[in-house]
Write a structure and sequence with these properties.
The protein has 394 residues and is α/β, with parallel strands linked by helices. The protein contains 13 helices and 15 strands. It has 2 domains: 16-34 and 293-393, Aspartate Aminotransferase, domain 1 (Alpha-Beta Complex); 50-290, 3-Layer(aba) Sandwich (Aspartate Aminotransferase, domain 2). It is globular.
Length: 394
């Protein structure tokens, strides 16, 4: 039977019927250890009881109102975000791409409101991924994602990732904003050095540029702190979040300081579904679970353990693995030629492990933050067998 779906994806011949914790099951009851988590989305695993209860309870009250009316839970979640971050204001979205679009608009609007409408240049970094909308692909700058969609949008400049001299040369008093992922996801799990984020903060302060962090993939506790930039101690002016903050329910947001966000007044931006009651109920439940004592310590511990296990895997497969990358539970390893990440990913799937692929020939793992050492050892054992099979197939 042919599909009526637009063929922008090529999923394997595998259908899951249910999920529980870190496991997914097909109709026959066969199990897969989920170490990609919907690409860093299922932060608390599948069917977490607190999230299920929050959604069920809200579903019996109100599903949707739009932003025409007050949603008390929207104020509640915004308050949680702002009381525990650099931000003063929040705009809720349904996805990361929408959060990026709002962040870019807010940065340019800030300069226009200050009397500098010509100040539109956005500096971003090679290897970045900020989403699939037109503005987001121009910010990301990946030629493969931009091909066939007309001319490049004006006002975007890309420089090498974490290159201090390039940043000093590119960021000036004509720059509207700088956008960076503290840990690149699609770009190959490269973590920006803390010193580099501090440098960007300094350069933006000196030039008046707006600093935007894209924490859509590396936020929501994935590195062992609620937001990845907290490790560096260099706060942004705007931050985009999504994926893990909804624990599997579509939810995103862009957070901003009062100084930057106050210019986004009535009529400058909007969303029909952003901040809907269902998303807010789940978002609050996710926040509450991640804020429990010991949760972030567990993520840090498991991230270190998984990275140690992958270092051992690298020692065993020196011919295949070039280096281990990432931060916390957004981690993986870069393969050497002729090994291919998607081949290894497929071999792992055949053996009961779901992982992902990222740029620069990286095998990516973004498991639920609730994994145990037993789960990590199981994943490493499957990857070991998969690398052996990949070698035999060369």
């Amino acid at each position: 039977m042919s599909s009526h779906l637009i063929p922008t994806y090529a999923p394997p011949n595998l259908v899951f019927e249910r999920g529980e914790g870190v496991w997914l099951y097909d109709a026959k009851g066969d199990a897969w250890l989920d170490f990609i988590g919907g690409i860093a989305v299922d932060s608390l695993g599948h069917c977490h009881p607190a999230l299920v209860e929050a959604l069920e309870q809200q579903s019996k009250k109100i599903w949707h109102l739009s932003n025409m009316f007050e949603v008390p839970a929207r104020e509640e979640l915004a308050q949680l975000y702002c009381q525990n971050s650099f931000a003063d204001l929040v705009f809720f979205t349904n996805s990361g791409t929408e959060a990026i679009e709002g962040a870019l608009k807010a940065a340019r609007k800030y300069h226009a409101a200050k009397g500098n409408p010509e100040r539109i240049e956005i500096v971003s970094f090679q290897g970045a991924f900020h989403g699939r909308s037109y503005g987001a692909i121009n910010a990301g700058g990946n030629p493969a994602y931009m091909a066939g969609f007309g001319p490049h949008m004006e006002g975007f400049t890309q420089i090498p990732f974490a290159d201090e001299e390039a940043a000093k040369a590119a960021i000036s008093k004509t720059t509207a904003a700088v956008i960076i992922e503290p840990v690149q996801g699609e770009g190959g799990l490269r973590a920006a050095p803390h010193s580099f984020l501090k440098l960007l903060r300094q350069l933006c302060d000196e030039t008046g540029a707006v600093l935007i962090y894209d924490e859509i993939q590396c936020g929501a506790g994935r590195t062992g702190k609620m937001f990845a930039h907290e490790w560096a101690g260099a706060a942004p002016d705007i931050m985009a979040v999504a994926k893990g903050v909804g624990g599997g329910f579509p939810l995103g947001a862009w957070l901003t300081t009062q100084k930057v966000g106050e210019h986004m007044v009535v009529g400058t931006h909007g969303s029909t579904f952003g901040g809907n009651p269902l998303a807010m109920a789940v978002g609050i439940a996710v926040w509450n679970e991640m804020s429990k004592p010991g949760f972030m310590e567990h993520v840090t511990k498991m991230g270190q353990f998984l990275k140690q296990q992958m270092a051992g895997l690298k020692d065993t497969h020196k011919d295949a693995i070039e280096d281990v990358r990432g931060s916390g539970l957004l981690t993986g390893f870069k393969l050497k030629d002729p090994y291919q990440n998607r081949v290894v990913m497929g071999l792992a799937r055949e053996r009961g492990l779901l992982c992902g692929a990222a740029g620069d020939n990286v095998v990516r793992m973004a498991p639920p933050l609730i994994i145990t050492e037993e789960h990590a050892r199981k994943a490493i054992a499957v990857l070991d067998a998969s690398l052996i099979a990949a070698k035999e197939a060369l």
